[in-house]
Design a protein that fits this description.
This protein is mostly helical and 353 residues long. The protein has 12 helices and 4 strands.
Length: 353
């Protein structure tokens, strides 16, 4: 199999995977909320309500597509399209598995292995806010505009803390390449004491960076308790107030795809990516393909656990006030990230990588 053919198949597989997980995240969100609130949740469309995402998708397609008379029509359409497009292409640099051997050739399960993968994802996340800003402004609605302004200021604030937290991981690994960062977590000695096979994860070395990252990721994806841009009790539904039909669906699906990619990024950085206990033993005894398939399962399992934690947080914590949101970002997370960065630098100088 030629490399280009494999890459095309991989792109299509990731596209379908992202859309499927985004669709069933809506089902899981309702089920998690139902369990926490002693309810049943979706139960009518198919067994256990498993066809509910298909019913919801059909509803988005067949609802009336309404455009406000005074809206900037081109930008009104561009906003949700940009959000969905950016959320889908962000996963191109994430290594989803170890490798597969097809016809005697090993293929990496990564669409684009670039040297600045971490920077690419941060950059794409920064561009994604333009879709929200454009949609909110083009709607010609004060609630939409306020939601868009909230989203832009929130993302700018928390991107700084996230970037500073990631610098400590970059310093430890000496690379912006996600493949290199993932491979460095395969084997090693935890704090120089215990030998680990597939479990030398960065979470053990950088717990503070992880805490800052997950808080910033919640804010970047507009998840509770940071959903101020679409705060229903204040702004109707914020930047998406004037949207209907599939354009509203693109905003919603874009949010869930972002949550999926954010958790996949977090797994690659802090939880060993596709590495799992005994990965080298499996490779030596069962072969490259068995290790590769198990690595995909391990990566997706960790990612889904992260998504469920995001949902648990949503139905547990109340929404912040906006001044509390800004205070946490500028006066708490950024100073903590800087302190963590200085401690990491001092430890690297003292003991090396």
């Amino acid at each position: 199999m030629e490399l280009i053919t494999f890459k095309i198949i991989l792109v299509l597989a990731l596209f379908l995977l992202a859309l499927t997980i985004a669709a069933y995240s809506t089902w899981a969100e309702r089920k998690v909320a139902a369990v926490m609130q002693d309810r049943i949740g979706p139960s009518k469309a198919g067994p256990f309500g498993l066809l509910q995402p298909l019913a919801d998708g059909g509803k988005f397609f067949f609802k009336e597509d309404f455009t406000p008379a005074n809206a900037e029509k081109f930008l009104f359409i561009l906003g949700p399209s940009l959000v969905m497009f950016i959320s889908l292409i962000t996963g191109a640099v994430i290594p989803w598995g170890k490798s597969l051997n097809i016809g005697g050739t090993s293929f990496d399960l990564q669409v684009a292995n670039i040297d600045v993968g971490v920077l690419y994802i941060i950059g794409m996340a920064s561009i994604g806010v333009y879709g929200i800003m454009i949609g909110g402004w083009a709607s010609n609605n004060k609630y939409s505009l306020l939601g868009a302004i909230r989203a832009s200021s929130q993302m700018i604030s928390y991107e700084l803390a996230m970037g500073l937290a990631l610098l400590s991981i970059i310093m430890m690994n000496g690379s912006l390449d996600l493949k290199v960062i993932t491979e460095s977590q395969a084997t090693g000695k935890l704090w120089g004491l215990f030998s680990l096979d597939g479990m030398n994860w960065n979470i053990f070395y950088q717990p503070l960076a992880f805490l800052i990252f997950i808080i910033a990721a919640l804010a970047e994806t507009n998840r509770h308790p940071f959903d101020l841009p679409e705060c229903e009790s204040e702004l109707v539904t914020g930047y998406s107030t004037e949207y209907s039909s599939m354009k509203l669906g693109l905003y919603m699906f874009g949010e869930y795809v972002n949550m999926f990619i954010s958790n996949a990024f977090m797994v690659a950085l802090f939880f060993g990516g596709y590495n799992y206990p005994g990965i080298e033993w499996v490779t030596q005894n069962w072969g490259e393909n068995a290790a590769g398939i198990l690595s995909i399962v391990a990566f997706l399992t960790k990612t889904i656990i992260g998504i469920l934690i995001f949902m648990w947080i949503r139905w547990t914590l109340p929404r912040f006030r906006y001044d509390q949101l800004m205070h946490l970002g500028w006066k708490t997370l950024i100073p903590l990230a800087l302190v963590n960065l200085m401690i990491t630098g001092a430890l690297i100088l003292a003991f090396g990588n």
